[in-house]
């Protein structure tokens, strides 16, 4: 039997598996897949996701600053090759989030969505409590790393994987409730989710992107085996993933369905 990778071990943990399911199966996603999500609720989520995306830009910059490119040229240095692979992956992350920020603005214009929508628990526009939790997590990686820095590249890669893995799974869940025979024009959001957002976040390209992040995390963990205690690294990764999945669960706005309506 082959040894489990780091990410396989994490998702096999019963507590993490339970949080993962809660984070990726909200009523928001179900109603969105059915075309029954009101435009106002979608605006509330999208306005927060845009703030999340802006913080994600800084987060990726912080991870780039932690990549250690080789000084010497050695074609047989697998560690150096992995650092280059991670840097390339992070470059794709940055390009992708920049496209997404533009996508948000374009879609908001097309479908009459409010990118400064205020949630039911807010008085003025800005990050709500959960979005602030994400921003603080992302920004903890933006400080220039120094010797003994508590925020290592490994930690950041695990955060990155957990967020993107949950995102892909969540929108894939929403597709289960959608049908091509349903008329987009009758959707409560004007078709924004089913016509554009859901296909964007469940595309083959996005799936391959998430798989590459996962492969980089697993390869980096394997490459570091001799430098750190494997069990300690798994404990650290598990704590990070739990934090992300708890935030992700609460990131989806409540809907009428949550009240049993």
Automatic annotation (TrEMBL):
It comes from the Eukaryota. Pfam families: TENA_THI-4. Residues 19-254 form the Thiaminase-2/PQQC domain. SUPFAM superfamilies: Heme oxygenase-like. InterPro entries: Haem_Oase-like_multi-hlx, Polyketide-peptide_reg, Thiaminase-2/PQQC. One of its GO terms (biological process) is thiamine metabolic process. This is Thiaminase-2/PQQC domain-containing protein. It comes from Xylaria grammica. The lineage of its organism: Eukaryota, Fungi, Dikarya, Ascomycota, Pezizomycotina.
């Amino acid at each position: 039997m082959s040894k489990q990778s780091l990410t396989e071990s994490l998702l096999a943990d019963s507590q993490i598996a339970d949080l993962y399911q809660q984070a990726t199966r909200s009523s928001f996603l179900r109603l969105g897949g059915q075309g029954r999500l009101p435009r106002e609720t979608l605006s509330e989520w999208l306005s927060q996701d845009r703030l999340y995306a802006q913080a994600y830009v800084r987060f990726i910059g912080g991870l780039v600053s932690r990549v250690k490119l080789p000084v010497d040229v050695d074609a047989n240095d697998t560690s150096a090759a992995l650092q280059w692979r991670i840097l390339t992956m992070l470059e794709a992350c940055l390009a992708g989030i920049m496209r997404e920020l533009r996508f948000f603005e374009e879609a908001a214009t097309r479908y009459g969505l409010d990118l400064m929508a205020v949630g039911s628990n807010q008085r003025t526009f800005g990050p709500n409590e959960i979005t602030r939790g994400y921003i603080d997590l992302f920004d903890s990686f933006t400080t220039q790393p120094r010797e003994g820095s508590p925020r290592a590249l490994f930690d950041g890669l695990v955060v990155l994987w957990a967020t993107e893995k949950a995102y892909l799974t969540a929108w894939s869940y929403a597709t289960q409730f959608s049908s091509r025979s349903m008329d987009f024009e009758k959707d409560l959001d004007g078709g924004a989710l089913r016509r554009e957002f859901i296909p964007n976040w469940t595309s083959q390209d996005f799936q391959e992107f998430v798989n590459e992040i996962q492969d980089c995390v697993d390869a980096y963990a394997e490459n570091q085996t001799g430098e750190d205690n494997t069990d300690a690294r798994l404990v650290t990764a598990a704590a990070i993933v739990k934090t992300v999945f708890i935030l992700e669960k609460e990131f989806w706005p409540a809907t009428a369905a949550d009240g049993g309506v």
